[in-house]
TrEMBL record:
Signal peptide from the UniProt entry: none
Species: Gallus gallus (Chicken)
Record GO cellular component, one term: nucleus
Biased composition range(s): Gly residues: 10-19
Protein name: Suppressor of fused homolog
Amino acid sequence: MEGTRPGGAAPAGGAGSGSGSSSFPSLFPPGLHGIYGECRRLYPEQPNPLQVTAILKYWLGGPDPLDYVSMYRNIGNPALNVPEHWHYVSFGLSDLYGDNRVHEFTGTDGPSGFGFELTFRLKRETGESAPPTWPAELMQGLARYVFQSENTFCSGDHVSWHSPLDNSESRIQHMLLTEDPQMQPVQTPFGVVTFLQIVGVCTEELHAAQQWNGQGILELLRTVPVAGGPWLITDMRRGETIFEIDPHLQQERVDKGIETDGSNLSGVSAKCAWDDLSRPPEDDEDSRSICIGTQPRRLSGKDTEQIRETLRRGLEINSKPVLPPINAQRQNGLNHDRAPSRKDSLESESSAAIIPHELIRTRQLESVHLKFNQESGALIPLCLRGRLLHGRHFTYKSITGDTAITFVSTGVEGAFATEEHPYAAHGPWLQILLTEEFVERMLEDLEDLNSPEEFKLPKEYSWPEKKLKVSILPDAVFDNPLH
């Protein structure tokens, strides 16, 4: 990528909301022209903003899905305590050209391409005369994830990045997504484009979003000027979390919100596995042993769709949650709450319906052993307290295979695990039904998972009378099949 001024910004007076300029049809494809029009509405005095441009376009074989990232200087709003900042806008997640070179054209009524573009607001440092270009690479990274997985982002999603966004020593190491406060949806000849803003957050704020919900944490960030304020501007120099700035927020807002609402996170892609302890591991025909080094059975297309659909529905607060989950993806460092997908989001390259769905019988298991790495295990209390105690479900989908583990409560319809047979498997998909009483006991026994830095791996928890065992194992066990 290279930083440059655009060779063809929308001409003065020619920016529209959907049709290309008749004077410059080749320079301004209608989709591109529509987004420029919205930018010109906000920044009429900046017709030629600085722009980071993909040297070799994605549709010509280049690595960067975004053709351009425009960078505007926003004066903020002193009356609202909004500081001056840089405003970044992507071009490429939506359909810019309408000729199928990148996105399949599906009509004007639905979304254009993936239906959205990314934006980012970065606080301008004193004396800074030009915008930093690192946010453009950050946006390219998110765009690569969307293009590779075909999962889209939604307002309230979180992204676990696990690294300072600008590669500094900053505490801002993760992201939430929300509607851009100034940019309005654009109707183009290729569909509708909305604008999702990236908001940088600290690890503690990400965890709160996971345990409660992203929208709730975004609202709290809006109330703290130094943490984002009403326009949710990211300040990479911010050294305190909102909970350090105002300690009452955790107890009075987040903890009460979790107790009242539960968690909106319905599942994650994770390092996990499970063993059927009911049968000998060598009984390949009937045992579902995910022993390291063995080739697991594939999720059928129907199971994949069921799991995907349940996770997609997981954000909806229903009186009767419906199985089936899944879709928080953890891929290339990404992890977000919900991702409506244009294809089966759980599908690996070879996970087509190798085994016909009707030929895989559901099996009731007597005893199971669950295995998680430390990061995945740390989410078990969230799964139990934030989901199952609120009558919902939670799914772990293995990032190294087709294995899936879904915890369900007694209030979830459509599960093949029942109170009589709480452990049931359909191919590599395990469901575990836990009663409220057992959930409360597990939360007590798993208390130390809330402070994972205080225990050494491997760590094992066992409930012999329930014939259930949970192990927290080092990453190497999952990363190296022969370890």
